[in-house]
Amino acid sequence: MPQNRGMDQEQARARRKTAVGNCTRVLTSGSDRTLRDWLTHLTAEATADATLVDLDAPADMYGNGVVEQLESKVAELLGTEAAAFFPTGTMAQQVALRAWAGRTGNPTVALHPLAHPEVHERDALHTVSGLRTVHPTRAPRLPDAAEIRDFDEPFGTLMLELPLRDAGFVLPSWEELTATVAAARDRDAVVHFDGARLWECTPHFGRSLAEIAGLADSVYVSFYKSLGGMSGAALAGTADFVAESKAWRHRYGGLVFRQFPAALSALAGLDKVLPRLPAYVAHAKTVARALREGLAEAGGAVPRVHPAEPSTHQFQLWLPYPAEELDAAGLRLAEEDRVSLFGLRRFVEPGPPGLSMIEVTVDEPALAWTESDIRAAAAAFAGYLG
Question: Which domain covers residue 209, as residue numbers?
Fold first, then answer.
């Protein structure tokens, strides 16, 4: 029975992939590149701009060459003294928080219970790094200044995830963020930003990347989230902090012999995708409104977009239907109308059964969709429900 169920799931994935692949328009598709696709993409990006990287330079070895070039670029963008490349964000953040625990003498990290280390890293901060976590708030937003100031026990590091993905990619205002950071400083705590998606935060804050990063003592950024890179992350801060982080990177097994594919794709993302992110963020507001209003006007249950006006180019769409029914409607829309709103993405039921959510990412393909296009597709999608 388990084997048959696995075969059924594979067949369902293949059917969905075929249907989406045959669509004339896809609003948000997710990534499903083959090995051949990745090789073709990487070669095209590396050869399209002769200034991006010197392809005749020796391949990197243990973090030199193109990896150092990437590190310098990240430090320049974030306005920090240095940056270190890591194979994963999980490793980068463990290293950062462990290093700060050693420097402050306090192994307690204050962070949100929905933050990435608490939800997606298999308790690594505790089991691998020996750190302890506390939660200044459980509200679906980042902690505010009063919650940090009045928290009833000491902590050495405050970690803020910008944006807070599992709460709906939400961000505070600039004034709220600066006040929260100041409250942590008043408690003699250091501040670390989980900036996996920091790249798209500049329109919301109305500040440059360097101004945002300048609030924190250290910042982690991702290269495959938002920028479309293959993998990898960077940890940025002062030169001495980054030097210590590189020592811990080695101890954690992150000093990889060759990393040029990830480094090349990261450089391409910084060069090509980063400048486009403000347009994606702006269009996300149109997409969110059109989805909400288009689904509501089609009749049936009222959808919810969270946040109502997206902070970045990503947001949550909630509908009071079982996930299986919503996925089936999306498949019918793709097969019968050759249009797809959500592509290969699937709905989930993170709360009560029958209340489903999907994360919507607005990037290059979505820019070609007008508000009326989205409303029409949303109405057609709703027509396949129930």
Answer: 61-258
